[in-house]
Amino acid sequence: MTTFSASDIAGMERFYRVNLINSLSGFKSANLVGTVSGEGETNLAIFSQVFHVGANPPLMGMLVRPDSAERHTLRNLLDTGYFTLNHVHESFYRQAHQTSARYEVSEFEACGFTAQFTDALPAPYVAEAQVKIGLQLAQRTDIALNGTILIIGRVLEVMMPEDCLLGDGYLDIEKAGTITASALDGYHITQRLARLAYAKPNQPAREVGG
Question: Is 5 in a helix, a strand, or coil?
Fold first, then answer.
């Protein structure tokens, strides 16, 4: 068992520390975030810090790194008030990773994705994605500890394959081909172990169907 103290971590080489700390939270979601500027220029960027905030009202959160460099995603969603989340599919994870490069043109064009628009919001979806969520900016919170910005969006629209939605509302993201991420550059397919019933005291965990 390897153990690192806080002082050990502070003394690590920069990129070693970044890789280690980014790995500690385990598997994370992998989403392409679609935005559009006020001038109509589309932008696409991969994010692994996306999470559920609440179901009623339906809210999702996203952490954006400190705004020390130009962040098209952040600028666009603050300017227009809208963004999309598109699950990264196993068929295009390499293209999705490439959206983290700094392009002078839209990442849709540079990385081979197709922008898809609906009447619900102006931000573009990734046409190739199987699971897509359209959101309106609900709240921005600046985190003073490290300059990170928490964006919370209200869900306006959801699209998914019909055969991936179970009768109780459970979305089978594995069947939809959604992958997961680790650290800054690890991508993984998943295998579900089970769905477990609502936990109650003094009762063993039991599986539910679906």
Answer: coil
Instruction: Give the count of domains, the chain.
Output: 1
Q: What is the pLDDT of residue 208?
A: 87
Q: Which two tokens stand for residue 45?
A: 């960027």
Measure the CA–CA gap between 22 and 48, rounded to whole angstroms. Answer: 10
Domain that holds residue 117: 29-186
CATH number for the domain that contains residue 60: 2.30.110.10
Measured between alpha carbons, how far is 95 from 111 in angstroms, rounded to an integer?
6
Contact 149, 166 (CB under 8 A): no
Query: Residue 70's pLDDT is what?
Result: 54
Instruction: State the burial class of residue 22 (Cβ atoms within 10 Å of its Cβ: 0-12, 13-18, 19+).
Output: middle
135: how many CB neighbours lie within 10 A of its CB?
Answer: 27
- The answer to whether residue 71 scores a pLDDT higher than 80 is no
Would you state the pLDDT for residue 37? 96
> Which residue in the block uniquely carries the two structure tokens 């169907």?
209
pLDDT tens digits, residue range 151-178? Answer: 999 999 999 999 999 999 999 999 999 9
Phi first, then psi: what are they for 72, rounded to 5°? -60, -40
What length does the chain have?
Answer: 210
pTM attached to this predicted model: 0.94
